[in-house]
């Protein structure tokens, strides 16, 4: 770069570009020519910190050239006195992803919503281009929320002064807006990136087929790889890209890191283009060198581009298994979704919650809860609830550990029994919690394929070795609804013969009405290595309060207790759960609703010509002739939220929670409409 920084130094006392403009409310938003844009960039340099501005603003003359060439455009809000009240720059030179810089407002009068008008101006222009998306990395104060989705964020470090190691940081947030429906695409990558991509594509609801580039299918690489680097001196930022793959790629990346770190480039990024199959090896080399995938720029290159970052200091402190694990991203709150999808009412059919709500007795407890109790710690071991459970199941209270949802029980079990090098076994297509907790704890999950959509006892037993600590079974299985009969389960327990713990997740047992269905509680006395999980989230309608429990042999709970954090179960949840347990009527009414809903869905969905399946439990699976994320998006627009099944390893399928009649009708109507649009 060849600009002279002293010329454009930011100064709070500089009056050259005028004080805050008045009468901004009457400002006109117009596309500006190069001269006007140059003035705008200079004013922005005066008003904003450098990291909020794109690097090219430092050379306003260059911006003018870029405008003249037609690759970039600029709109400025000008007052009657010819003062600039703000502006925005964007780039949409025929690329699939356009980018806007700003809006930058030079007035404090936010009630004029000039920022929104500037953005709308930019959006209209971008909408006429072939761009599918608009991204925003640089902006002034903030973005009007309703315009954009957050793509992701990462820390940006300031340069260290001396060697103290204290470099401040700020959060860089990248925003994104779809300009039109994404047509879908295939992306090419290595298996190590699979989790990240699945999570992000689910969160962004982008239809993508993720294909792995097999080692054997890769062309014989050259001896030496070539990397390029974009440098941004002001931000101490270096971005590495792959120019040419080669056998020394891992070493080459390591050499680059060493070089950049020696010169104090604290913000190291790398970009991998998923549209180019030969970049798969690059992603692997980056991961091996402490880079982590942070966000996806949809259609940012030949295909989607994954941005990797390498946190400078943190890197050495974090275990590999944590670095390689992708955090679970839950769906957004209703108010946020409503803005995004413009529905009137929303039916939540994605989490297997009970549409009838909690049992009446629990509702009463919730209504009458004394707020002052919130000031005191709850019973640390759910004293009353455990007594009640012991009564119900003819066990001792010490055989129960109540947790913050069944999810906490899963964590407790893995903490109690597993150490580095151990493994757990479960199915490949089941509730994800077992696999996730194992992985972020550094324990290997072994996944056995389902057989006829059910857990396969032989396959599991084959996988057991001396380091197997726990087998996780989901009975009935979420999402397939299949189950093991009492006979299959007891045969399995005999064959295991105490070699490892067997966890029986009975999250949906209250929905099952089958004579041969086993009740895990009744088997605990026979099999001291059996642990039963139950939850109040599904049948009992208390998902929002987070309460579940495990039951096991007394020696087993004694062990697990050691790993439990006291007070993880709140007072309100304990009281509501206690009241909920008694209500048989609630269970019957819910089962009736589920049975009626299943009949209805079976009939209507087959009439749509789609394959569907269900079993036990309050959920229902539908196989689609197209991407589940496309279906999700379209159904959301009609106020129906279902579960995309790609993360469950069932591509192009959705899972529907069975709810009341109105919801089921809305769901079928939304699905029918989605099919028609397809
Ligand atoms: C919902 C669910 C859980 C989690 O239950 P919480 O008590 O809400 O943590 C556990 N296992 C299965 C199979 C589930 O479907």
Output the keywords.
single chain; 678 residues; Aminopeptidase; 4 domains; 7-stranded mixed sheet; disordered N terminus
Biggest sheet record = 7 strands, mixed
CATH class of the largest domain: Alpha Beta
Q: How much of the sequence is in beta strands?
A: 15-25%
- The CATH architecture category of the largest domain equals 3-Layer(aba) Sandwich
What are the distinct ligands in this entry? pyridoxal-5'-phosphate
End-to-end CA span: 50 Å
The count of domains is 4
Helix coverage percent = 25-40%
Q: If you consult CATH, what is the topology of the largest domain?
A: Aspartate Aminotransferase, domain 2
Please state the structural category: alpha/beta
Q: Radius of gyration, rounded?
A: 29 Å
Strand ordering within the main sheet: 1-2-3-4-5-7-6
CATH H-level superfamily title of the largest domain: Type I PLP-dependent aspartate aminotransferase-like (Major domain)
Tally of individual helices: 19
Average of per-residue pLDDT values: 90
Give unreliable regions as ranges.
1-18
Q: Count every beta strand, where a strand is a DSSP E run of 2 or more residues.
A: 26
> What is the 3D form?
globular
Characterise this structure.
- This protein has 678 residues and is α/β, with parallel strands linked by helices.
- It folds into 4 domains: 142 residues, Aminopeptidase, CATH 3.40.630.30; 128 residues, 3-Layer(aba) Sandwich (Aminopeptidase), CATH 3.40.630.30; 103 residues, Aspartate Aminotransferase, domain 1, CATH 3.90.1150; 223 residues, 3-Layer(aba) Sandwich (Aspartate Aminotransferase, domain 2).
- The chain contains 19 helices and 26 strands.
- A hairpin with a 5-residue loop joins β2 and β3.
- The structure holds pyridoxal-5'-phosphate.
- The site of pyridoxal-5'-phosphate has 15 residues, from α11.
């Amino acid at each position: 770069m060849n600009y002279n920084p002293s010329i454009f130094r930011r100064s709070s006392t500089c009056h050259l570009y005028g004080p805050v403009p008045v009468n901004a409310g009457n400002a006109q938003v117009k596309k500006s020519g190069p001269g006007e844009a140059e003035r705008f960039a200079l004013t922005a340099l005066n008003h904003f910190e450098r990291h909020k501005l794109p690097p090219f603003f430092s050379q306003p003359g260059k911006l003018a050239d870029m405008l003249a060439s037609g690759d970039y455009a600029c709109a400025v809000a000008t007052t009657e006195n010819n003062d600039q009240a703000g502006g925005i720059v964007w780039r949409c030179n025929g690329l699939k992803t356009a980018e806007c810089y700003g809006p930058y407002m030079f007035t404090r009068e936010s009630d004029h919503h000039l920022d929104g008008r500037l953005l709308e101006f930019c959006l209209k222009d971008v909408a006429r281009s072939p761009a599918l998306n608009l991204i925003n990395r640089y902006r002034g104060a903030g973005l009007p929320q309703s315009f954009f989705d957050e793509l992701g964020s990462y820390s940006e470090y300031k340069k260290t002064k001396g060697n103290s190691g204290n470099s401040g940081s700020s959060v860089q947030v990248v925003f994104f807006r779809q300009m039109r429906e994404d047509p879908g695409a295939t992306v090419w990558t290595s298996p190590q990136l699979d989790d990240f991509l699945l999570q992000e594509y689910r969160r962004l609801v982008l239809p993508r087929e993720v294909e792995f580039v097999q080692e054997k299918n890769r062309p014989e690489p050259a001896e030496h790889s070539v990397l390029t680097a974009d440098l941004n001196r002001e931000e101490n930022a270096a971005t590495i890209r792959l120019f040419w793959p080669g056998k020394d790629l891992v070493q080459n990346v390591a050499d680059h890191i060493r070089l950049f770190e020696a010169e104090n480039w604290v913000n190291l990024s790398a970009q991998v283009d998923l549209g180019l199959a030969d970049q798969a090896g690059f992603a692997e080399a980056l991961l091996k060198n402490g880079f982590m995938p942070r966000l996806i720029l949809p259609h940012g290159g030949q295909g989607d581009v994954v941005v990797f970052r390498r946190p400078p200091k943190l890197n050495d402190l974090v275990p590999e298994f944590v670095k390689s694990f992708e955090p679970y991203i839950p769906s957004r709150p209703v108010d946020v979704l409503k803005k995004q999808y413009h529905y009137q009412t929303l039916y939540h059919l994605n989490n297997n919650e009970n549409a009838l709500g909690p049992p009446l007795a629990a509702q009463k407890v919730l209504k009458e809860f004394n707020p002052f109790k919130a000031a005191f710690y709850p019973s640390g071991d759910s004293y009353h609830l455990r007594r009640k459970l012991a009564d119900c199941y003819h066990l001792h209270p010490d055989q129960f550990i109540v947790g913050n949802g069944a999810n906490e029980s899963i964590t407790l079990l893995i903490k109690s029994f597993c150490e580095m090098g151990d493994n757990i076994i479960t199915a490949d297509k089941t509730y994800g919690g077992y696999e996730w907790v194992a992985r972020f704890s550094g324990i290997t999950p072994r996944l056995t394929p389902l057989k006829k959509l059910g857990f396969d006892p032989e396959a599991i037993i084959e996988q057991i070795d001396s380091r197997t600590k726990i087998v996780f079974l989901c009975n009935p299985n979420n999402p397939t609804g299949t189950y093991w009969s009492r006979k299959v389960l007891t045969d399995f327990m005999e064959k295991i013969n105490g070699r490892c713990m067997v966890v029986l997740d009975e999250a949906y047992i209250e929905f099952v009405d089958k004579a041969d269905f086993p009740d895990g509680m009744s088997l605990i006395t026979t099999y001291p290595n059996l642990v039963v999980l139950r939850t109040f989230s599904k049948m009992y309608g208390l998902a929002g309060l987070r309460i579940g429990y495990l039951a096991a042999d007394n020696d087993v709970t004694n062990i697990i207790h050691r790993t439990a954090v006291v007070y993880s179960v709140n007072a309100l949840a304990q009281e509501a759960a206690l009241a909920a347990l008694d209500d048989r009527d609630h269970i019957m009414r819910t089962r009736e609703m589920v049975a009626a809903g299943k009949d209805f869905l079976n009939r209507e969905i087959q009439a749509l010509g789609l394959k569907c399946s269900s079993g036990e439990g309050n959920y229902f699976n539908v196989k689609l002739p197209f991407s589940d994320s496309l279906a999700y998006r379209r159904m959301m627009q009609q106020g129906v939220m279902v579960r995309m099944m790609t993360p469950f390893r069932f591509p192009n399928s959705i899972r529907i929670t069975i709810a009341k009649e109105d919801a089921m009708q809305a769901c079928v109507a939304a699905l029918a409409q989605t099919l028609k649009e397809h």
